[in-house]
Amino acid sequence: MSTALLPDDPQLRERFSELKPPLAPQAAVIEADRCLNCFDAPCTAACPTHIDVPGFIKRIASGNLRGSALRILDANILGSSCARACPVDVLCEGACVLHRQNRKPIQIALLQRHAMDAFHASGEQLPSSTSATRNLRVACIGGGPASLACAAELCRQGAQATIVERRPLPGGLNTYGVAEYKLRAADSLREVEMIRRLGVDFRIGVSIESATALEALEAEFDYLFLGLGLGAMQRLGIPGEDSDGVMNALELIAAYKVGHIREMHGTVVVVGAGNTAIDAANAARRLGAETVYLLYRRGENDMSAFDFEYEHAKQQGVQFLWRRQPLAIRSDERGRLLLDTVQMQQVDKTLLPIHDSQFTLDCDVVVPAIGQSPLAQLIQELRGVEVRDGRIVADRASGQTGNPRYFAGGDCVNGGREVVDAVAGGKRAALAILKTAEGSRA
Amino acid sequence: MPDIRIRKFAGSIDSPNPFWLASAPPTNTGEMIMRAFDAGWGGAVWKTIGEPVTNVSSRYSATDWNGQRMMGFNNIELISDRSIEINLKEMAEVKRRYPQHAVIASLMVASNRETWHEIVSRAEDAGADGLELNFGCPHGMSERGMGSAVGQVPEYAQMITEWVKEKARTPVLVKLTPNISDIRTVARAAKRGGADGLSAINTVNSITGIDLDTLTPRPNVDGKSSHGGYCGPAVKPIALNMVQQIMSDPEAALPLSGIGGIGSWRDAVEFILLGCGTVQVCTAAMHYGYRIVEDMAEGLDNWMRSKGFATIEDFRGLSLNRVTEWKHLNLNYKIVARIDEQKCIGCDLCHIACWDGAHQCIHLDRVSGPVNGHVELHATPAAKEAESRASIAETPVSRKEREALAQGPYSTPLARIPRVDETECVGCNLCSLVCPVDQCITMVQVDEGIKAETWDERTKAKSCASTTILSQGL
Fold first, then answer.
1. What is the CATH number of domain A20-121?
2. ipTM score here?
3. Which of A154, A286, A300, B390 has the highest local Cβ count within 10 Å?
4. Nearest CB partner across the interface for B346, out of A42, A396, A421
């Protein structure tokens, strides 16, 4: 779990230098002083984990940095990565009342990062609760944000939590899937290490893919938390998709983050227009690709990516091809890829190809980025857990599924949102497990 | 075009405007004072002249507040550390080059008649337009029987003023210390002693703060500190109060040069409205330099223009009679807070301030339905907060979800626009003071049709009534 598993790559660090540099200590205090300290603050309400934003900000202003970090961690154990990965424009900073006074919102994310960086730099750890005070054992399947938050909360309240993760590194998309210029894999692992020191047990490289494996967990643990995330990325469903040079967005992002891909050249075509597509397109540019196209079957106003992500991609030199649908991928004799596309138009509410508008793009890499598929395999094995539209059906407040011993949270329940949503879901489930366990004992 | 010149202040002091630099580091040398005059200052009170002192290293400290530097400023510097000869030689040179500007010699010497007579003569021979007797310095010099040690004992102040007046040909101003229970006692003594004017206030005794690493108060002089003199914006309200006290007292009132936290034309106007003939500035000039006087002069000119005042005398003292004793305030005057829904940004600071600091009459119940009446009927702030912490929030990831967050008729969601229960509002002003938006919360007069009545009138009426009853009973 140590960061030693990640090679320190100066080239990666340089190419993926941080999008937003951290605040200098005095700048942080000046920014913290700007905060009005709203009552029942809208930023706190907008945060899925309800971090006491004015509370931690005013602690920065007063010089109580330790208290500030603990205040954040009380609400959100992944406060460090959320400070980097959250789309704050549509969350806390978007809710800041200063907008209504035509003033710049408080830079909440940078302040949160300031407090968390100071906490990590101080070498301090959260009080560990290795002595379990409750006779309660919970397995969290999947090692991403939802499971981390669930396990951390359980541990902090005296239960025993074990995270079971199939990949070589824990942290889920925090480690493998967030653009490196926002959240470095090393920072994600640092946070995971803090959670391990709380007393959370990690079983790394363990796949739970059979009913037998599940039954073994059921036998060993009182409750199971499903923080499975989503499935693999969806396929385009066109001929030639398995050619060399086709690699989906999450594969690309994970590969460069752990050092498997260090450079790209030539022309890269990303298919899709969500936030992950943007991350992949930006990554291709930073890795050296001369030309990066982002190809989307609908128009600019239909893209699901956040506005600030779109702006960022334009600044990175990504070129956008609107209303274009891929038809097939071929290879020429020199091994380059040929992506056949067609222009689309919207007729009423239906997208239709325009006759005779075929066009072939010469490229080196094609990156499908049209979303993750729902989890299929494992869920079918879960007795009594209802799955609808590829999502686990769970109570919104408690995360409890149809099987009362199974709780769930994060992307596998909400269909794919942000890190902070997964943390909130994991924590709610932990509290519900504790409550259920107490109830069943009483 | 308004005329902001000062004529014959305290008898004979003229200056191109009412803005003087106070006796302090900015008036340490002739070179500095000449640069100040070039920048636009109308006068300068020379850094106190007396037997030269040795100053300590590390002399100032400050109180910062909410990111703002030097809200309050403190010093433990003594009077001039330069010889009397050099100071007076430079003073003569300044007066030669700037005959139209006011140069006041601030003086402090040992308490005997001859010494005072000698320094007065020498200062006037150097060309001083007036003398300011430093009876206010609260640190160091007071331990040697000078400064505020004189200014805190009316008999001493009167005696020295009399000695000075025996010799002086120019106006004599007495600078008063605020470190006394009633500043009027010394002001009256100065007047009895024949002073032509007063300067107030000198600095306030202070310890600005303590370094939490070394545990030494600031300013740190080799591990120790000493009480100093506090000035700057923080002391302005204290100064205004004392200015008003002096100027409202016929036995104390004299031409007054106002001092204490003045940094802008607004501050200056306030001191003049309470009767000051000139104002003195130090901290703001130490913070930003002499250049601040440009805006002070322009701002004063513009304000006078907009109000139709032709000279400083036209508005000097106009606010004095608007300060009265509490017992003469109208008990039947009623105002209530009104919140402008269009301007409200939803910080809800007025709600929490009213609940925890006032009278529990600002509520967040526009959506749930307004309830007027006593506190028990309303959700407490803690309950409100708990409710929102228990709610489930999600990141709006799709375009549709984001659009659904669009607001209603006001830019702030109705649930966050507080409502004032006017039946319970006591008109205390607190909400309008904490509101970060100008003109969002205004205090509106409610005419309840009741005749004005003061506490004085009410108690007198009662005692009359009881006397009547008593006499009838008899």
1. 1.10.1060.10
2. 0.90
3. A154
4. A42
